[in-house]
Design a protein that fits this description.
By secondary structure, the chain is of the alpha+beta class. It has two domains: 65 residues, no CATH class; 213 residues, Fumarylacetoacetate hydrolase, domain 2 (Alpha-Beta Complex), CATH 3.90.850.10. Helices cover 17% and strands 35% of the residues. The N and C termini lie far apart (40 Å).
């Protein structure tokens, strides 16, 4: 099953992919958003998909696609999770995940601009696989970890590099408003290989491939990440784990390659889909 969250004339809605496109209903009519459906567990997503399939055919030109989970309780990002990216960044490959946080105000959906802030011109791309928790918990074993995954999506971890390195902690440069592309779909695990293993990940800037890797190259697999993070943090339905980016980021290039207004950045993960975001300059209203 493949779901999107959208904003239409009747407010926020959910749609499911069908052979003829997306069919959906307003959240107010369905009685739950995707995060709430994940929390219900069991066959809640399947039952919702049946209802949504009988809904109206969605005209994507008349709605705004939102992040699949617009307001996750937690967005847990993993840095340096590919050996080649660790090396290009000047770090030894980690023996424990490098963890930082994002906030929901940083998220934008498919087709919505990633915003270059007025205070910096060092906006970088990072294509990543996103993992959405279905069944929450703590102290989750690696053997059971994939049973706690509710779905997968795509993330562009837009980074403001000069702000990332203003302090020993990366968080401020990693969570500027409207810099994290997320979506377009939540894809349930039954549509993909276990843990999304062996999938090609590719980032393109203005049509040029700038990152290309396999998810098999992750240092810490999806199952390992869920298990390790749950040692410290109670994971909740709808939480997002952004699993890390491969080599090829703009910071590591000579000269550096920054995203700028007018650019288009695409992140594709085999079997999961394609996330496309134009790049726009921050406006006065956004900065006020």
């Amino acid at each position: 099953m493949r779901f999107i969250t959208y904003l239409g004339a009747d407010g926020e809605g959910i749609a499911v992919a069908n052979s003829d496109g997306y069919r959906g209903l307003p959240v107010a009519s369905l009685g739950a958003d995707l995060k709430q459906l994940l929390a219900r567990g069991g066959d809640a997503l399947s039952v919702a998909a049946e209802r949504l399939s009988a809904g109206a055919l969605l005209d994507l030109e008349k709605v705004r696609v939102l992040p699949p989970i617009p307001a996750p309780d937690k967005i847990i990002c993993i840095g340096l999770n590919y050996v080649d990216h660790s090396k290009e960044s000047g770090f030894e490959p980690p023996t424990y995940p490098t963890v930082f946080a994002r906030y929901a105000t940083s998220l934008v959906g498919h087709g919505t601009p990633i915003v270059c802030p007025n205070c910096s011109d060092q906006l970088d791309y990072e294509g990543e696989l996103a993992v959405v928790i279905g069944r929450g918990g703590r102290h989750i074993s690696e053997a059971d970890a994939l049973d706690h995954v509710g779905g997968y999506s795509i993330f562009n971890d837009g980074s403001i590099r000069d702000y990332q390195f203003k302090s020993p902690q990366w968080t401020v440069g990693k969570t500027f408003d409207a810099t994290g592309g997320f979506g377009p779909e939540l894809v349930t695990p039954d549509e993909l290989p276990p843990g999304c293993s062996g999938l090609k990940l590719e980032t393109r800037l203005n049509g040029e491939v700038v990152q290309s890797a396999s998810t098999d190259d992750l240092i810490f697999s999806v199952a390992r990440l869920v298990s390790i993070l749950s040692e410290a943090i109670t994971l909740s339905p709808g939480d997002v784990i952004v699993s890390g980016t491969p080599a090829g980021v703009g910071l590591a290039r000579k000269p550096p390659l920054w995203m700028k207004p007018g650019d288009v950045c695409e992140v594709a993960v085999e079997g999961v889909g394609q996330l496309i975001n134009p790049i726009a300059q921050e406006t006065a209203s956004e900065g006020s």
